[in-house]
Amino acid sequence: MSSPTPVAVVGPTASGKSALGIALAAALGGEVVNVDSMQLYRGMDIGTAKLAPDERGGIPHHLLDIWPVTKTASVAEYQALAVGTVEGIMSRGKVPVLVGGSMLYVQSLIDAWSFPPTNPAVRGKWEARLAEIGVDALHAQLAAVDPAAAATIEDKDPRRTVRALEVIELTGKPFAASQPPKDAPPRWGTRILGLRTTPERLNPRIALRAELMFAHGFVDEVRGLVSAGLVADSTAGRAIGYAQVLAMLAGEMGQAEAVEKTITNTRRYVRRQRSWFNRDPRITWLDAADEAVVEAALDSLG
Questions:
Q1: Domain 7-115+190-200+274-301: what homologous superfamily?
Q2: pLDDT tens, 137-147?
């Protein structure tokens, strides 16, 4: 008997991926695998729109809450965990439903991506350059040599900016050249579904989500995570929303500004997500506003 084929649900933040993923898992006899880099962190719930256990429709969810907020994220480590998880689900005759919009994490899972080597001396050189000129200027330097890499890496993300420049120096090629081509067959024959939506529909949803986060205890969540070791200069501490609340708690801005910057930065991130996923010809796109999107998704899967 052949193994079940995984299904991936991708697309921008706030487009409805979680709900569609649960509906598909229920219809297909599946289990959800998280592909959202910030939902990997324990306690980062409100700010990542992580579904509570009673909101998961009785569907098993994997790779949520696996890392402490003190851990530096690693796409390669995630990839190893996620591949094992997906293949374990398939071995039980269940359909893995991969849900998330974290671009590099999605690609690491559905593509056979062998990560480039690292070199401590080269890494150290770029870290020293980061300390000298700051993340904004270093990101601008990346944009000058590899605009495509700069377009997908947040300009406030020093670790990935350094890593991209390290790979470019070591390989003599753009950072994207180390990634598998997007027209290659996906791992396990995964069927990739994307939720397409317009800024006119999504922007109000993003604003409402941010306002509700702050109204429903987000600041208290971050305070609790600070007690657990969350700091601004960390992977988790640079997450959209969390970075703004940490700045607020440090007295660098008021709550109204923190809310507005969370909304603005989320919209910027969505533009990156759209650009990234739109370049993948393997994605079958669905209208996120379609009331029958679940039926459309199932029809597209045959």
A1: P-loop containing nucleotide triphosphate hydrolases (3.40.50.300)
A2: 999 999 999 98
Query: What is the pTM assigned to this prediction?
Result: 0.87
Residues 210-234: tens digit of each pLDDT:
999 999 999 999 999 999 999 999 9
The residue written with tokens 């200027």 in the block is 137
